[in-house]
Amino acid sequence: MSSICRFRGRSWPTLNLSYSLSFSVNIESGCSNPPEFSFEPQRPSSSVAHTHELASHIRGDLPIPDKIFEHGQKFGSYRRGDSTFYSLIEHHASSGDFRSLEMVFELMKREKRTFIEKNFIFVFRAYGRAHLPLEAVVLFDRMVDEFQCRPTVRSFNSVLNVVIQEGLYQRALEFYSCVINSKTYISPNVLTFNLVIKALCKAEKVSKASEVFRDMPLLRCVPDVYTYCTLMDGLCKEDRIDDAVALLDEMQVEGCYPSAATFNVLINGLCKRGDLTRAGNLVENMFLKGCTPNEVTYNTLIHGLCLKGKLDKAFSLLAQMLSNKHIPNDVTFGTIINGFVKQGRAVDGMHVLKAMEERGYKVNEYAYSTLISGFFKEGKSEDASKLWKQMIEQGCKPNTVVFSALIDGLCREGKPYEAEIFLYQMIDFGCMPNAFTYSSLMRGFFEVGNHDKAIFVWKEMAQKDFMDNEVCYSVLIHGLCKHGNLKHALMIWKQFLAKGFTPDVVAYSSMIHGLCAAGSVKQGLNLFNEMLCKAPNSKPDVVTYNILLTALCKQGSISHAIDLLTDMLNQGCDPDTTTCNIFLTYLKEKFDPLQDGREFLDELVIRLHKRQRIVGASKVIEVMLKTFLYPKESTWEMVIVELCKPKKILAAIEKCWAQLFL
Q1: Minimal CA–CA distance to 163: which of 194, 133, 140, 193?
Q2: Is 592 exposed, middle or buried (0-12, 13-18, 19+ CB in 10 A)?
Q3: Which residue from 611, 662, 658, 659 is spatially nearest to 639, judged by alpha carbons?
Q4: What is the DSSP string of 187-238?
Q5: I need a labelling partner for 582 at 20 to 30 A (CA). Which of 370, 385, 479, 547 fits?
Q6: Residues in the chain with pLDDT < 50?
Q7: What UniProt keywords are attached to this protein's entry (predicted)?
Q8: CA 344 centroid distance within chain
Q9: According to the 3-state scheme, what is the secondary structure of 112-158?
Q10: Number of neighbouring beta carbons within 10 Å of residue 574
């Protein structure tokens, strides 16, 4: 049924479904009195189809074409108002239809309509959702000259936020400087400074952010809790924890009360540094300030405890978290499971996983991948296989991480052919293998002696245009050098460097081993020196030094090997059992090997002790005891006193006496 809506002497054809539309149009006409409606049955006219179309457009079923305005003018049933255009701008901005937005803007300019700032803020936000920050900047520049709309700090902050959200921190800072230094007369407010400080901190210009923070009061702008929190986070990430904690005291003196988020930033910084004592004190301070620890606080503390290896305390804190009715998330459980696995306690990690399931938590694939990898590393392949089956039965879809963990574990067990089957299953599952997946498979075939198959995996990866990186090259070079294929290893090495990759310590050590094994010790030393000078991020480890020490001792250059050992100590690298055995083996050629070996290692202990490397010294003493080369009494006492601090000894004695007394 159609009807005629009469209001103020004018008629608008309408339908029952569009009464609200007719009402809104009459309001836009500027009438102050409430409208009066009267309905008379009428034969459907040609304008009814137009009304149907307009109603569909308003509901969002169809895009709004410009011809609707033309039809409205012809039959006199519709008069455009500024608010109608504003509604269209909001509609197109919400849908991300920037082409239609430009058409509306052009039509408004032709009809000399008034532009308001709210229109542009809608569009700026739409550009942000569409990840088009530079278009937002361009539109901001057009506001005054093209649309005669003077921007305020609201639109300025909106554009600034869009640019920062896209990670264009330097561009955001340039935009800020350009606008503030221009004649727009925009005065920044606290939100502006918060955004600028955030951009500076993200751009690793924390000192500059501190300067901006100190200048805020001079511009009659008082920092709020978000200002302090943002700057604290930047300071913590630069490991300036003390400066960040000092800000906590300062903000309270200034009358700005910290929130839970403020404390969480500082607690996270202290936990990452390993200062759990101060982190615990901050938690107590939270309660004093009326801030209750939330899920983020607990997760941060649990993560910090796991990093320090205090898993039992982390587990008890988890129980406290649950008792306080805080809901742990996947990160909480995953952190504890990962902590247990790192300590070789995958079984305990499995208990945590079962506890999750009993409490109704859905275990994600990352927890499974951590445990599967942990079981394989501990030599418990059956437990890893059972867990894989359990994951499938639970309906947890494996991803690339889980498949890669399984493939790596099977290769560690010497089962690369089974691992290859899972690789094809992985691809069928829609999970793309990564560099870790292929490097594990190549390493597995090298370990079982199938060099051709390992190289075939390498070529297959290259043909399928999968990612090849330093890890894959390192595995390939290591495998070729280990099995004496130095010629092909050198070819891969040149290809590696030509692609612009930087060799890691594994690649360098493998090439040095290959050269030394082929009798080219001098070339191996040259490559070692290149490693020291040209690859600061690939610092030689004890394996690298042991390779060269073995080669030098084999060719009888004991003095050169001792000099290299001195360089090793100066570089901060402690000797291990292999290092000690290398020298003991080649010192047997002396007239009195027992005496020479004992004196050599005893002197090595003293040298490590002088450098305050007590752990390294104790490892050398362990080697001496196993080989019946007892250290001197003075050396023994010196190391034991350092290992057993007086406070720890007294605490142990007091605990023992207390137990006896009870």
Answers
A1: 133
A2: exposed
A3: 611
A4: PP-HHHHHHHHHHHHHTT-HHHHHHHHHHTGGGT----HHHHHHHHHHHHHT
A5: 479
A6: 1-62, 71-79, 660-662
A7: Repeat
A8: 25
A9: CCCCCHHHHHHHHHHHHHCCCHHHHHHHHHHHHHCCCCCCCHHHHHH
A10: 16
Helix axes 133-145, 153-165, angle to 10 degrees: 160
Q: Are 314 and 305 in contact (CB under 8 A)?
A: yes
**What does pTM read for this prediction?**
0.59
Q: Which two tokens stand for residue 496?
A: 């590696």
Identify the bridge partners of residue 260 per DSSP, sorted by sequence position.
none
> What pLDDT score does 618 carry?
86
Q: How far is CA 563 from CA 465, 548, 558, 566, 617, in A?
A: 46, 12, 9, 5, 19
**Token pair 């129980």 is at which residue?**
319
Q: Among residues 150, 164, 243, 241, which one has the least CA distance to residue 197?
A: 164
What pLDDT, in 10s, does the model give residues 33-82?
443 333 333 444 443 344 344 334 434 444 555 555 554 444 443 445 67
Would you kindly state where each structural domain of the chain is located, as residue ranges?
80-184, 541-662
Neighbours of 240 (CB within 10 A): 17
Torsion of CA 424, 428, 434, 436, to 10 degrees: -40
Both tokens of 34, joined, read 């409430």
pLDDT at site 44: 40
Measure Cα distances from 279 to 267, 295, 326, 363, 659 in Å.
5, 15, 19, 29, 31
| CATH number belonging to domain 80-184 | 1.25.40.10
Which residue's entry shows tokens 């630069």? 238
Q: d(Cα 601, Cα 580) in Å, to the nearest integer?
A: 7
Phi-psi group of 224: left, alpha or beta (phi > 0 → left; psi -120 to 50 → alpha; rest → beta) = beta
> In terms of residues, how long is the chain?
662
Q: CA angle, 437 as apex, 432 and 442 as ends, to 5°?
A: 130
Q: Measure the CA–CA gap between 328 and 319, rounded to whole angstroms.
A: 10
- Residue 237 to residue 159: CA distance in whole angstroms: 26
Q: Write the CA distances from 580 to 8, 366, 626, integer angstroms.
A: 104, 40, 12
Q: Which residue type occupies 200?
A: L
Residue type (1 letter), 19: Y
Q: CB–CB of 173/196 below 8 Å?
A: yes
The two three-digit tokens of residue 12, written as one number: 């608008």
Please report, as a single letter, which amino acid is at residue 617.
A
**Strand, coil or helix: 221:** coil
